[in-house]
Design goal:
- 63% of the residues lie in helices and 0% in strands.
- The protein is mainly α.
- Helix 1 (14-23) packs antiparallel against helix 3 (56-99) and helix 2 (26-44) packs antiparallel against helix 3 (56-99).
Length: 116
């Protein structure tokens, strides 16, 4: 069963943390590349122990493992996209709030200021 975790980091560390999370998938990526090559070798009979005879059963097992590795990688990529998009939205809202002119309520204006 998969569970969703949440934790906090400083605002300036959000993108660095997203990169670190993505880096956790490096092993899945390497495994996927290895399986991808191995599937082709098994189907061609090119592996060292195959002696030119394709190993369909082993190729199918590797395909299943490859699909699991891809799913893990896709899940992690989706998580990182959510983090980066949310952070970018936050940054844009913050920038808009900082750029918006502040208006004073009429009762806060001092004498001599225009109440236009």
């Amino acid at each position: 069963m998969r569970v969703k975790l949440s934790y906090t980091v400083d605002e300036e560390d959000v993108l660095t943390e997203a990169a670190n999370l993505l880096g956790l998938s490096a092993e899945d990526m390497q495994q996927g590349i290895s399986l991808f090559r191995g599937i082709q070798e098994d189907l061609r009979g090119d592996s060292e122990d195959a002696e030119g005879v394709p190993n369909v059963r082993r190729a199918l097992e590797k395909v299943e493992d490859f699909r699991k590795a891809l799913l893990a990688l896709d899940t992690r990529l989706s998580e990182v996209v959510d983090i980066v998009e949310s952070y970018e939205e936050y940054r844009l809202q913050k920038r808009s709030a900082e750029a918006a002119p502040t208006t004073l309520a009429p009762e806060l204006l001092t004498e001599g200021e225009d109440r236009a």
